[in-house]
Write a structure and sequence with these properties.
Layout: H1 9-16, H2 21-31, E1 39-48, E2 51-60, H3 63-66, H4 71-80, H5 82-95, H6 97-100, H7 110-116, H8 128-139, E3 144-148, E4 154-158, H9 160-163, H10 179-185, H11 188-194, H12 197-202, H13 211-216, H14 220-225, H15 228-252, H16 257-260, E5 265-268, H17 274-282, E6 288-292, H18 294-303, E7 316-319, E8 331-337, H19 345-358, E9 359-369, E10 371-372, H20 384-392, E11 401-402, H21 403-412, E12 415-422, E13 429-435
Length: about 425
């Protein structure tokens, strides 16, 4: 395999996921302002066990029509102002508002929220008016809900979306906090990189350095080695994304479960073997191999315990090169997750040709990357994978491909694209290739 910058597969995941957070905050940027129109708020109030049940009636005025504003103009305003919401979101998160509202079954005023924020002396220094205005902006996106309390004051409550930003969420809750994603994508190193995008696109730098490198005069891998706090947010995103991806892949593979019975499988670029161990433990597959660069396999072997390789979950960790068929065991299936997206079209064809030789006559290659939509599936529709692809461009490290692009590359290497299976994780789909 062509050498990557880091031997560690975990860091590899970190690197290629310069943020799935790119999806989460992308949602807020695409949501932007739900409307710029004026609203008349009407609140009806009554008491039920000391908890106020309120109805918020939104009566949209005809201001836009009377001013001759077109829907296209309003949509453009929403799009252009999306970053207002992103900045307000991370500000409210850092202030501790989502945790202050956690588990609360009544609406709280800004003063009550501030009193619950556990920041010691810092709580008294919070700019009440600024916090109030940021919270109200988030109400337009559905993150927080506003109503009027019995004292005729604005009061707030978390929506389902807002609850995902509580730091107390854990895997045991069947949900994970999305806070690390927001913190990472809203960090100054990412925002500063965006400012360099126009120059990168028009080519005003003869070295053609990617936006991140331009903003910080170093690559993202070098930057995170020297900035522990920022790296911790990115690592948290990578760990959470990796866990979700493996679970979602196993679920999607249920479609092929009978075909995997007793089959020999090789995971190309499989790092420490996490994917293969999970597959071996949940399916009646045959021999499983994890192939990666020699340095990665050496590291993986040093951390493998006997319990990792019992009779039911044995995985062979082998050094190899995806461009060298002689290093790839003969097999029925080849898996490769977030590897080919880091290579040029020419190198991808070379790798697929190598896979073709290693696979049995009825063998299949399953490419586990985010697959972008084509044409009609793209126009006018927000798509997480497309946002992910463009945002990853900031680091200049990788690019996702569409179904059509994978189909064309597959043909050049002697494959045909059978299908693309979606998973429950927006960062990964399964492109299934069969030998012609």
């Amino acid at each position: 395999m062509v050498k990557r910058t880091s031997k560690s597969p975990v860091m590899f995941l970190h690197y290629i996921h310069i943020t799935f957070i790119y999806l989460v905050l992308g949602i807020s940027q695409c949501i932007g302002w739900t409307t710029i129109a004026s609203y008349n708020y009407v609140s009806t109030r009554h008491i039920e066990d000391d908890v106020y049940s309120r109805k918020l009636v939104l009566a949209e005025s005809s201001t836009d029509e009377s001013l001759g504003r077109s829907q296209a103009e309003m949509d453009l305003l929403q799009l252009a102002q999306g970053h207002f919401v992103s900045q307000a979101l991370v500000t409210v998160l850092k202030c501790g508002v989502f945790d202050a509202l956690a588990g609360v079954d009544v609406y709280l005023t800004v003063d009550e929220i501030i009193s619950k924020i556990e920041q010691g002396n810092r709580a008294s220094s919070i700019n009440r008016d600024a916090l109030f205005r940021c919270i109200r902006l988030l109400c337009t996106t559905g993150v927080i809900h506003e109503t009027i309390n019995k004292d005729n004051d604005s009061a707030f409550f978390l929506t389902d979306m807002g609850r995902l930003l509580q730091s107390s969420l854990s895997e045991s809750d069947n949900e994970s906090s999305m806070a690390p994603f927001i913190l990472h994508w809203s960090s100054h190193e990412i925002w500063d990189s965006w400012l360099q995008l126009p120059g990168y696109v028009v080519g005003d730098d003869s070295s053609n350095r990617p936006p991140f490198d331009r903003a910080h005069n170093m690559s993202c891998s070098e930057y995170y080695k020297n900035n522990a706090e920022e790296c911790s947010h990115r690592n948290a995103v990578a760990r959470q994304t990796s866990r979700k991806e493996i679970d979602s892949i196993l679920d999607a593979l249920q479609v092929l479960e009978s075909n995997l019975d007793g089959k020999t499988i090789v995971d190309i670029g499989g790092g420490y073997g996490d994917m293969m161990y999970a597959l071996k433990g949940s399916n009646n597959v045959g021999d499983c191999y994890c192939l990666d660069l020699p340095g990665v396999i050496d590291d993986a072997m040093s951390t493998t315990t006997d319990s990792d390789n019992n009779d039911n979950t044995h995985v062979s960790l082998i050094p190899g090169d995806m461009f060298d068929t002689s290093t790839i065991p003969q097999c029925d299936y080849i898996f490769t997750k977030h590897v080919l997206c880091d290579f040029s079209d020419e190198d991808v064809v070379r790798a697929l040709q190598s896979f073709h030789k290693a696979l049995s006559k009825e063998g299949k290659c399953i490419i586990m990357d985010a697959v972008l939509p084509n044409c009609d599936d793209l126009n006018g529709k927000w798509n997480a994978a497309v946002s992910f692809d463009v945002l990853l461009m900031l680091s200049g490290r990788r690019g996702e491909r569409s179904r059509l692009e994978w189909s064309n590359l597959a043909k050049k290497a002697g494959f045909v694209l059978d299908d693309v299976l979606s998973t429950s994780t927006v960062t990964v789909d399964l492109a299934i290739l069969s030998k012609v």
